[in-house]
Amino acid sequence: MNIFIMRHGQAAPKVSTDALRPLTDQGKSEVCLMAQWLAAQVSKFDYVLVSPYLRASQTWQQVSQYISATVVENCPELTPDADADIAASVLLAYGDLAPECHVLVISHMPMVGLLVESLCPAIMAPIFVTSGVAKVSFGQGGAGVFDWLEGPHNIQNHYPPRVPELKTLR
Q1: Range of 115's domain?
Q2: Omega prior to 121 cis, within 30 of 0
Q3: Which pLDDT belongs to residue 49?
């Protein structure tokens, strides 16, 4: 099983509630860039699990323009303050159903980092930039292996974007 863990794209700073924060235009561009790059890694996801927050569902809308999925589900276990160990158990249950599957998770900080830590106990929770994607793989032994973590700032110079150039935050 391969689990791809993605943080949502850059979101608007504040609206009436955190759950309703939409992606910014830059956030949409970052997500599209990462989705194009990710499409070279995996052609289709068996399962996509998305936080019910608006910016996470908008992130999936952008990714789905480049990569399809068999099953897409809103997953309340993926909100920012949810329990990462419970979320990891949910993910591992999908692996029990289909051991060769590719799963995409779209969530938030700190959940995405804590989820990597829960799936790969030898790894401390990494910090994800917006639109960052990590890959965790599982083989015969059942232990998670932290394969990589990439963000739009890493791949932008190595991949010809089909989206407008991203603005820097400096």
Answers
A1: 2-8+20-157
A2: no
A3: 98
